[in-house]
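Chain X:
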Amino acid sequence: MHAKDPKEYLSILEKEKERLEKEMEALIEKRNKGEISEEEFNEAKKRIERKFIEVMDRIVQLRYITGESKLFS
């Protein structure tokens, strides 16, 4: 998932963020329908949340590097 251009990599990360959001929505739907147990839900939720935090951290860093935002306004 690496790109040579920081802006290209930022785009890849934003798509990954959207994918993780959709994955979480699908997971919640499965739990609500009773397709998975609460334990399975919590394990998958924890995995998705960890990945989401990692992706968001990289997005913030790249936005700062590319000048799209300032770290401290």
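Chain Y:
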Amino acid sequence: MADELQRIIDGVNCGLNEGLIVNAGHGLHYHNVEAVAAIKGINELNIGHALVAHALFVGFKGAVAEMKALILAAAKP
């Protein structure tokens, strides 16, 4: 995963250097979102499938709360 994470970091930096707003999504789930959320410069995370799938077991309120907690913890300086 370290190689893929470095590719994401490089892509974020490239986009920022070009003046783009950088968002991330596709394939984010409860086990990898923290590493991506910790990358400085990402404006928005798009998480769909993992959230809906988890909501089947814990409800949307619980699924969103868990994901939000992971993202906020990872994004702290």
